# Entry
Amino acid sequence: MVNFRVISEYSGHPDFDGTAQKIASGPLYELSRVQRLLATGDGVVLWTRKCNQDVMALGWDVDDVAVLIRDLKTANFRDSEWCENGKNHWVACDSYSIVRSEWAPHANRYYSYEYFLKFAISVAGSVVLTVSCHLS
# Structure
């Protein structure tokens, strides 16, 4: 028997098999509420080691991730799923993808970049736990 703990506000129970699992009823969190938490709550936490590495590879920090989340629209929603952080702590996440046009100084032009994000609201309701933030 594997012991695990759900630390997201959405507290359903995953059918545990050790892998991420889709949740059919998404989105689980109202996007406008997530975006308000960035200003009024404790902000963004890069919750997994992989997320930290991916954000650093982009040359970003948590403020840049918060800007990306603020830019999301409900139409950017992809799906919801259970995710784990390697310590038997699980969160129910909503995932989004967004395309942004960004200046590439080395090419002296704009490029379209697609970003993938996956996040949850903490059980306390005050933090956006970011599980993924990387280029698609």
